[in-house]
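Repro:
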Amino acid sequence: MPVLNRIADFAPEMTAWRRHLHQHPELGFDCHQTAAFVAERLREFGVDEIHEGIGQTGIVAIINGQAPGPTIGLRADMDALPMDEATGAEWASTVPGRMHACGHDGHTTMLLGAARYLAETRNFAGRVALIFQPAEEDGGGGDAMVQDGIMDRFDIARVFALHNNPGQPEGSFQTTPGPIMAAVDRFDIHIKGRGGHGALPHLTADPVVAAVAVVQAIQTITSRNHHALEDLVVSVTQIHTGSADNVVPDNAWICGTVRTFAPHVRDMVRRRMTQICDGAGMAHEVEIVLDYQQGYPATVNDADQTEFAAETAREIAGEARVDAEAGREMGAEDFSYMLNARPGCYLFLGQGEGPGVHNAAYDFNDAVAPVGASFFARLVERGQPLHPEDA
């Protein structure tokens, strides 16, 4: 089965919705206009319930089927990124310094398309909970919505999400059972030394030398403290210090990211980073303070729900265009909080060749929106089918 016929009928409207959202990007939890647009469309579709202001600006909408049954959750993220757009598209961002560079405008559109179809047909038992989430990129909107009680409040039994995947064939699907995306942590290292004249370094406590030593030592965590067969990335991404060639500065700052899957690996990195900072502070006679912030947990797919999602994807895309053992990657996703609360599956939807996500030249491929909407719709119809006596 390819794209559902009814969804194909209103595909041009989906393109219009997506391009409107693309022109009006919002960041983090500040998704007020986006949420209002979503709620307006949902009212037009005739969904049964619209619950707004969940997780600050999130929405949960309910569509009832034709018979009693469980509730399946479908999630889309709504927020954009703080960067300038370079697509040159007619529908480019109208807000300087903001753009939908990760395709969340497309994710929202796909879920809206599924909502319209499901509200019209209701060819399923139980209920659908449509979850429109803010602050995936920064802030943990998924956690905020879980903390607001959506799983229990709406009795969600299982939950699914899609993310577009540039570089993979258009309309193909990729997923994997178990861990699919990593946990993400951030570290900030503040070094306080004693500045002075660059010609008199013996009178200073040089934070630059200390910073270099810390960065070099951090690189040994992966190579010397970690089992080579367990995934780990430790990346220093920023070093800021100094103002002139003849001045030893007072302070330095280091920042970076840690990506892991196993909790014991995560704990080891934090422990070793603390030891490195304490030791370097003593060795270089400077004060070093480590601020280690745990972020999103690993995104872990339930094996049974992944098998079900892959079967549904094969129905839409064909056997050869679904990779259900695609492996895991070191990116992070706050859908992890929802998967920690309920079994489910996170999948990637190929959108063809072109710039990758978080690139100023990236744009969501509107041709795959009906594919994603059809996938969401068939998840519901296959997962909660009507029996003959219910129809």
